[in-house]
Specification:
single chain; about 80 residues; mainly beta; four-stranded antiparallel beta sheet; 1 helix
């Protein structure tokens, strides 16, 4: 079986204590991996895309491969200063 990749996009907001998975994309090529992962981030407006690998046909038992961070999609929230409340 050929190696498959699973890219999971995440929405993150430290202010709201949010770390939520959004979508999962399964693909089988490592050509232009960074460009493909960037495309997924663009689609979901995701600051974080985690990529996993698997050799199982049903995409089970994935192994962590790499995190891709996209600063342009970081949360714009700012913590309120405790004196401003």
């Amino acid at each position: 079986m050929r190696k498959q990749y699973i890219a999971v996009t995440y929405d993150i907001c430290e202010v709201e204590d949010l770390f939520m998975d959004m979508h999962e994309y399964v693909f089988s090529t490592d050509q232009e991996l960074e460009l493909l992962v960037k495309k997924f981030a663009d689609i979901d407006i995701a600051p974080l895309v985690r990529v996993y690998t698997t050799t199982k046909e049903d995409s089970s038992d994935p192994t962590f491969y790499k995190d891709f961070h996209f600063e342009e999609y970081d949360c714009g929230c700012e913590k309120l200063d405790t004196n401003q409340r």
